[in-house]
Each structure stands twice: as structure tokens, then as C-alpha cells.
Amino acid sequence: MPPPFQNPPTGRGQGVVLRSDGPGSDVPAGWIALAGGMLSIHEVTKRRGSREILSGLSFEARPGRVTAFLGPNGAGKTSTLRILLGLDTATSGTALIDGVPFARLADPVRKVGAVLEGSGAHRSRTGRAHLRWVAAAGGVPRARVDEVLELVGLADDSRRRVRSYSLGMGRRLGLAAALLGDPDVLVLDEPVNGLDPEGIRWIRTFLRDRAASGRTVLLSSHFLGEVAATVDDVVVIDRGRIVAQGSLSEVVGDHGSIENAYFALTGGAR
Amino acid sequence: MKALRAELTKLTSLPGVWIAVAIGLVLPAGVTVLNASNSRSVPSADTGFRELAIGVVAAIVIGVVAISSEYLAEGEESGGSRQITTSLTAVPSRSRFLLAKTAAVAGTVGLLALISSAITLTATDLTSADVSIGTSDLPRVLGIAAYWIFSALLAAGITLVTRSGIIPLSVLIVNISVVSVSFLLTKVTRLAYYFPDLAGTHLFLRDSDGPVDLTPVAGGLVMGLWVAVIAGIGAAAFVRRDA
To answer: Which residues cross the membrane (chain B) (predicted)?
Structure first.
């Protein structure tokens, strides 16, 4: 039996506030999980028809760290995130959050916040109405809607319909919905896509703060410069296979920069 | 309960649903009033109830929109983002999601049917001198509510398979308003009287003009069976497919 109160070896994540894990967790008794929530992708394979989109992917995203998921368009980043979130099913393999599949999380809105493409909202609803139903689904108090609107800078536009939002405003609305439950884990697909420079700087600081408070952040991106300034760990995938993973400095290695490493690993500019 | 509250909030914040509610309240009552002033229309035991059968359009729109709104792509620049991803990350259990959706649609449509029946039958009572509506018609009003709810769930079940409202909306609305496919088929085979839209009318109509005369309970059971099968296929597709 593992010794109690021992943290998994998470490097920077060590030393964050401990708390006991809620019911429904598969963490062995005696272990105290970190506030963050561990994301474990294990041997995930996904086939669509005869095409293999993901081939035996395994990686982890740890509490207290920002993990970047890099790869060219069509490499399988979004598919992996969708499997992690239970939206798509893997042909084989497992994707777990603190040892539990997403669909079996006791309180998903407080455990995981996710932003995939766009806003994830219906065009005919107002931003506020969108957040209100997500809050209702998660059992989050109504007052929290105003808090997250303020947080992402949408308070003044909350009564406009989503159809009138710019791409960047839609992204902010998606992030607001993900933050309603103040979740332990953030999963973001291309979070800086569509944001203006101010928004990019804001989200960089914001994600660093989340990690510093012991939470888990997993983001996919193809903005390499942005990644170098924000993340701790890097997972590079190409054509459904992992080609490199480790801390940022490990993956950069002798390549000098993440950009050089990326092109060397993914076979250069195709 | 959390999931149900979310689904009710979704329905009440969609403009399409409010348009459907307005149609459901105005259309049957309006047709009743128009018919009453038309000297050629002959009042019968079904006056008011036939008009309420037309109002089922509102129920169908709500059933379709409740599902199709989840799959409406946001726009090209957002990479085809759809609400269903938000829905299933907030309520990951697909069976719980569908149950909440079903309850929200059935509750909303049932309430709408009762209010619309009250308006339309009051209008019938006031405008048709030869027809009087009384408490004895209460079972028929419940029949209307059941017919509207069944129709909404049937529409929702089909939309779960198509994931788009265009086909189910156009087919179902044309079937009611322009030409009844089921009714045309009765000219070919008597079995068409057991199609859901025709069998279900026995829930509230009393002057049956077809050769197949079902009791209200039998009519309700036949339509309910259709709903169970089609919504079941839709649910099975929804649970198995990638969102």
C-alpha cells in the first residue's frame, strides 16, 4: 500500500494544498489527490471507418502545471480532447480524470471546465441565457454568472445574442461557461484562437495563475510562441501518434526553440 | 433535477420556442373563430377539437427545436461549434440528458396544450351557438394534451437521428397543413389508419369518419407505441454516436 499523504512526482505541482478526494474516485485509499485533478490518457486509439485517427496515445496532464498539446491541423488534438471529455468514444484505451472516465464524474461542472471550438452556445440565445442554463445544469448559484461575465470581460455584452458576437467574444463566452464551476481542471482547444493581443496576454496570466493554485490546465495550440511563454509540459503529436513529450526544456532539447523542435518532430513544413 | 432545470432554461431562452408557443395559442383559437363565422361550416361534436389538432404544429416545432438547437452550427469562423458539446460536458450522462430533455419538452408542450385548449374551447363555446363545451369534455382535453406531447416526442425522436431540424420540420408540418401523407395512404391500405397522426386523433375526436374506429385509449396506445419505437431509435442513436 502506498504511503499516505504522498504526492505523485509532479515537479512544480508539489507543495500545493492537499485535500481528500471526493466519492467516486478510483484513487487508492490512503492517497490524497491534489486539488488539480490528474488527466491520464492511456493507449487511446480511435478509428473512423478504416482510417486510424489516433494510434495508441498515452500522456498525462498534471495538477499545478500547464500542459500544451501541440501538432499540425488534423493530427488528432481535438479528437483526443473530445475523447477525454466523453464526447467521442475511443476505439480502445482509456481517458481518465482522477482515475474516472468523464461520464462518471460526480460533479463534472466543478471538476472540469472545457472550451472546444467557438463558444459552444446557441446563436439565438443571449450570452447571459447561455451561462444561466449551464449554471443550472451544474447546480452553480445564479450569482456566479455575473462573476464569470465580469471575469472574461463580457459583462456589458451579456444581453446581446451570441449571433452578434465576434469570434473573440464567443471564445470569452465559452471560457466563462467553463469557469462557472471554478473547476479543478481546464481543457482548452486552441484557447488563443480569435483573441486579440490583450486577450492573449490576459489568458496567459490567467492560465499561469490557475496552475499556480494547483489546478490542471491542458490546452491544445499551434501558436508556438504563445506556448513557450505559458506552458510547463509539452506533448507533440503528429498523424495520431505522440512524437515527443516532457517538460518544455526537455522537448526543446538541442533544437534551440520550441518552433525548431516542433518542425523537426512533425516532419517540417509540409 | 439540475439537468431538468437546465433543459427548461434552454427552452424558455430560445426565440423559436416562443414563436411556437404563440402559434400554439393563436392558431387553433383563430381557426375556430374563422370557422364559426363561415356559414358553410357545420358544427359537430368535434368543433374546437379539430382546430386544436392543427395546433399540434406548435408541439412539433418545440420537439424538433429542442433537439436541433443542440446541433445548430454556430458559423463557419467558429469551426462548426455546436451547443451539444457544452450540454454533454455539463451533463455527461447521455441517458440523464435525454430524460431531462424529454421531461422538459413534455411538460412545456403539455402545459401549452392545456392553455390552448382552454382558449380554443372557450372560443368555440362563445362563437358556435350549436356547440356547448362542458366539464364532460375534460377527458378529451387530456387527449389533446397527450396528442401534442406524443407528437412533440415523435418529432424530437426523428430529430435525434437527423441532427438537423430541416427535414423533420418540413415533412411533419407539410403532413399536417398541406397534405396528410397518412390520410392519402388510407386510400391504399387500411393499415394507414394506425399511423401515429391518425390513430392519435381518436384521443379527442368523436365523429370518426374512417372505417377503423379506435377507442380513445386504443388510439392513445397505438400512438404511444409509435413514440416509444421512434424515440427509442433516436435515443439509441444518440447514446451510441459520437456527439
So the answer is: 12-32, 52-73, 98-121, 141-162, 169-195, 215-239
- Contacts A130 to B, Cβ<8 Å: 13, 86
| pLDDT digits 0-9 by tens, A61-100 | 999 999 999 998 889 999 999 999 999 999 999 999 999 9
Tell me which DSSP letter residue B167 carries. Answer: H
For residue A221, what are the CA distances in angstroms to A72, A185, A218, A224, A241?
9, 17, 10, 7, 16
* Burial class, B219, CB count within 10 angstroms (exposed 0-12 / middle 13-18 / buried 19+): buried
Q: Phi-psi region for residue B122, left (φ > 0), alpha (ψ -120 to 50) or beta?
A: alpha
Q: Is residue A149 part of a domain?
A: no
**Is the per-residue pLDDT at A126 higher than 90?**
yes
- Residue with C-alpha cell 433516436? B234
Give which of A112, A64, A110 is closest to A211, Cα–Cα. A64
In chain B, which stretches have pLDDT less than 70?
A: 76-80, 209
Is the CB of residue B243 less than 8 Å away from at least one CB of chain A?
yes
Chain A residues closer than 8 Å to B9 by CB: 129, 132-133, 136
Owning domain of residue A37: 13-118+184-265
C-alpha distances in Å from residue A246, one per residue of A32, A103, A207, A226: 24, 28, 19, 17
Residues of A whose CB is below 8 A from B69 = 122, 124
What would you measure as the largest C-alpha separation in chain B, in angstroms? 60
Domain count for chain A, please give it.
Answer: 1
Q: What are the residues facing A44 on neighbouring strands?
A: A57
Grid cell at residue B109: 408542450
DSSP state of A47: E
Helices marked H in A89-240 — which ranges?
108-111, 127-138, 143-152, 167-179, 197-212, 224-230
In angstroms, the separation between the Cα of residue A267 and the nearest Cα of chain B is 26
| The model's pTM | 0.88
CATH of the domain at A61: 3.40.50.300
